[in-house]
Amino acid sequence: MQILVVEDDNRISNFLVKGLEECGYLVTLCKNAEDVLKQYINIEWDLIILDIMLADMDGVQLLQALRYKKVYTPILMLSALNSVQDKISALDYGADDYLTKPFHFDELISRIRALTRRRQYEQLETPKAELQFGQLHINREQYKVTWAGEPVELSPREYKLLIYLVENIGKTVSRVQMLNAVWGITFDNHTNVVDVYISYLRSKIEKQDEKYIFTVKGVGYMFKG
Amino acid sequence: MQILVVEDDNRISNFLVKGLEECGYLVTLCKNAEDVLKQYINIEWDLIILDIMLADMDGVQLLQALRYKKVYTPILMLSALNSVQDKISALDYGADDYLTKPFHFDELISRIRALTRRRQYEQLETPKAELQFGQLHINREQYKVTWAGEPVELSPREYKLLIYLVENIGKTVSRVQMLNAVWGITFDNHTNVVDVYISYLRSKIEKQDEKYIFTVKGVGYMFKG
DNA sequence: CTTCTACTACAAGAATTTGCATAAGCTGAT
DNA sequence: ATCAGCTTATGCAAATTCTTGTAGTAGAAG
After folding, report:
1. What is the pLDDT of residues B69-105, one digit of tens each?
2. B114–A15 C-beta distance less than 8 A
3. CB neighbours of residue B211 within 10 Å
4. Length A50 CA → D21 C1' (Å)
5. Which fold has domain A2-122?
6. Topology of domain A130-223, per CATH?
7. Residue in A with minimal Cα distance to B214
8. Which of A30, A18, A81 lies closest to A56, judged by CA?
């Protein structure tokens, strides 16, 4: 589940990113409206969280711009203002939900679930907390991975990468996509971290000839169940 | 699971009652606002579905009346209007969700699940006054914690944190969630109070190799019984 | 078949972060 | 002023992340 957070206040964005990541979401942070329209618009987000007060552009303007460019991703607006007028204009221009700061983090999570649940329903996808591929079990609620019953100790980054691969099961994902989704890096800075982490994952989850991660030369990797 | 449907249009109410009953809910139908306030107000519903257009009273008025009388049952508003103003006023006056006709029945179900799930979560506050995990006893009525009969002196904050962990037993809770739930709303994430208090708790309740609080690296903590 | 090149795999270690314990500072109530 | 409780700061060990560098491999070209 990939979420784009558009927020220029460092304090709040840190809090959001950290909290959402701790809840298992893959989060990318963008600090200004311009970059959203330039760099991030073509990525398929599951949800966009948009602050209504940005330095370079009004959040509602950005919302309008996105909808104008036919971006139909669910958008949750975030604002310090409690004015009804703001709520109205945000929802009128196509926001899917609206939350006023300060808010309870659990309420944010529950609203995110509501928004993305509807999306999943539309996509006719069934989200599962328990996944199994051969001997490999993944429990997403408990962040627990086991192989033939034995626990597999994965670092946070390794776990995130695994989840991303599993979410795109059967699809080839590129290094850039992975850098994007798992590392939050949107530019190529000539790193081979992805390769290294694929290697880590393989050594931990591929045992006794059970192979899950396949190399697609020149393109990326693919997870097969 | 008991649901009260307040709806005066026969076509719609039939559809709702039939559909909900087929999904396993116990449904009661009420055709006017007056009866809700007279007859049905004292029953403990799990959910109330309220049409915004009733013959004898505006749905939002009824909603207000219910909340005024301290009925905190989750309420889902139903309306043919897609006006943002209605949505806002409904939500402002204490509706928990809002659905516009015509709607997909599956979406209704999914929203019902969301609302009643949250309720179940909230109801975890009142289940058992006496809890026991190994040698650890927690009496929630007396705010008293003992280990092997010996009283454990916990400060208010420590106690609150313990209760929050216990309420989420078996689930990983993040630092941000704990900050939110135990310390109140804050965007501050440059603090390690949570770690410190986990440490305090451990030193007070984990004795003789009885371990309750487990670290989930990179994510948070989990209480196991 | 052999050679070449671009790509991939992975080991090793440096740099950074995290979790945890402890200490020190702060605050509000009595 | 004192004290309990709360928060911040600090140090350290261990874990994690990331870079570097080298060996290996697939597949195209000759």
Report:
1. 767 788 888 887 666 566 666 666 667 777 777 777 7
2. no
3. 11
4. 43
5. Rossmann fold (3.40.50)
6. Arc Repressor Mutant, subunit A (1.10.10)
7. A142
8. A30
